[in-house]
Amino acid sequence: MDDLTLMRGFRAERVKRNPAARDAAWQALTARFEAATAAAPASSSSAPSAAAAIPTANLRRRLLRRRRLFAFAAATAIAAAVVGVLVLGSGPTAQPAAAEILHRTAAIAASPQGPAPSLLPGPGQFLYKKFERLELKGWIPGGTSSGGGLMRSPSAFNALMPSRQEWWTAEDGAGRVREVAGTPRFLTEAERARWEAAGSRLPAPFDPEYQRKYPLAFGDALEARRGVVDTEHAKLKGFRFPDTSRLPIEPQALRHAVEGNSISVGGFNLMYPSAQRLDSEKTIAELFNILSEGAPLTPQLRAAAFNALAELPGIEVDTDATDFLGRQGYAVRSIRNEGGLEFIFDPETAEMLAQREFLTAPGQGPYEEGLPAGQTIRETAYLETGVVDSTHDTPAETPAPAMDERG
Amino acid sequence: MGEIQSDSEAIAASLADPSAFGVIFERHYDAVHGYLQRRLDGPFADELAAQTFLVAFDSRSRFDRSRSDSRPWLFGIATNLARNHRRREIVELRAVAAMTPEAGAGDDGVEARIDAERLRGPLARALADLPTEESDVLCLLVWAELSQAEIADALAVPLGTVKSRLSRARGRLQVALGLLAVTDPVAAEATSTGGK
């Protein structure tokens, strides 16, 4: 019996239909319907009925359909304009085509000047990853925090929260995570002043009160204090790395494997576990995953991923991108339904510098309302990756084995 | 409302005709109520289930209508409301833990360790001790039966955040329940000290 099975049975006896509670909830809701109907300027004075709803819904659907058609036409026109600049080029000073840039980057990735391959750890070894993260967070001091969105509570503070993270992970999932908080970057000066006046408390897990509240999580930490959390953890049942060793390294074959959601590589196809086929948007996201998480990530696989991206629709390349640490590079960008995703890479070395998620339109959802288009939701800047021999080593202290030593 | 097929269409229709939102209540009240019953004592679960649909109705204009299924949205609202009662949830879980015997105490065999009744107390204690974010992810996975992608939707966090929170929560539960297979001295040490 595993933990999830135990949890499924826990308190199952409490789940009972309660007609009285249901009726009370329904009455409260219908009262709200009536209030909303009375408040609506165009509403009739009579109570709404199911019969009246049908023509209203039909009319609304027709209007929505027209609006969608218009939006589609407008989006197509805008996309055509963008593609005209970034993909086709326009004149002697135009940027090279996106596809050309990606093919060129693929060639660099496959060359001896390309980045060193990343490897999977063997027995007794750990995959070391060091990165800096900037994430939009809302938090209530000493309490909960959100990741990737605003928190609307009056007692919450909202900011872009930087942190430096180091992860050591063994092949069975055991390892160590060290996180060090930076200084919150508030979206307004007023918010900063409010935070300072309230004691400048950091979000979870960096707040000492939060750390004391959860002794199971932090009681045995190597270090847990304001701004620093450093914990070791035991092996995780069922853990496995997103092993990319069986992926095809021919670009078309790689693309087809990803599109068919047929890559049985933990950590990638788990993103869309039930999909029979991935659309181009999801295929791009999976190829980004391979470039950021793949291990072993050989020069051939890295090159295949860049070449496959070059042939996908909807890809843009920005040749004037900068990550939040100030490193300049090119950004390969995918505009998705729910926002934008971009990878920033060094065009000279094909090294991945950062990954960023951002808003492509002014925020409208409850966790994004009021934020401008382009707002960073989360950015990860990669600093160092390698295989080490203990949770207290870093790659600089551990010579990297050659690829053939690892098979 | 016979033509309305998806939750998304019902919510869109309710902008013009509020009564169209009744479909959402009919379809999902029992599931939301059951989820909250797992987390909180009866009267609180009843109250929060009603509130969930009132909050959903009031914020229906902000529902992302590219999502056909409103369950992640509704469970997200329910989870946010339950969060305000986290202290009560913890007190209840600790009360359960206090009434049931410890697991893993002494030299019990494997069969005794996997006995669900014996693990009820440690499970309750472990759930009480989980950070709220991790507890939310676990409850949505098991009790609301949302997929990881739907949980990401419900909590408005990226899928990677859900995965990492779930991984940590399960690691902690497994250590607390003594279910973690321990074969090496490093893991044994971590397990014996409660793990992290």
What this model shows, in words?
The complex is a heterodimer of chains A (407) and B (196). Chain A is an alpha+beta fold. Among the domains of chain A are: 140 residues, no CATH class; 107 residues, no CATH class. Helix content of chain A is 34%, strand content 22%. In chain A, a hairpin with a 5-residue loop joins strand 7 and strand 8. Chain A is globular, with a radius of gyration of 25 Å. Chain A starts with a helix and ends with a helix. By secondary structure, chain B is mostly helical. Chain B has 2 domains: 84 residues, Orthogonal Bundle (Rna Polymerase Sigma Factor, Chain: A); 67 residues, Winged helix-like DNA-binding domain superfamily/Winged helix DNA-binding domain (Arc Repressor Mutant, subunit A), CATH 1.10.10. In chain B, 53% of the residues are buried.
Short description:
By secondary structure, chain A is of the alpha+beta class.
The helix content of chain A, as a percent range, equals 25-40%
Task: Return the string of H and E elements of chain B.
Answer: HHHHHHHHHHH
Model regions low in confidence, pLDDT < 50 over at least 5 residues of chain B: 100-114, 181-196
Q: What is the count of distinct domains of chain B?
A: 2
Name the beta content range of chain A.
Answer: 15-25%
Provide the structure class of chain A: alpha+beta
Q: Unreliable stretches of chain A, pLDDT < 50, 5 or more residues?
A: 41-96, 403-407
State Rg of chain A: 25 Å
Radius of gyration of chain B: 20 Å
Q: What tags apply to this protein structure?
A:
heterodimer; A: 407 residues; alpha+beta; eleven-stranded antiparallel β-sheet; disordered C terminus; B: 196 residues; mainly alpha; Rna Polymerase Sigma Factor, Chain: A; Arc Repressor Mutant, subunit A; 2 domains; 11 helices; globular
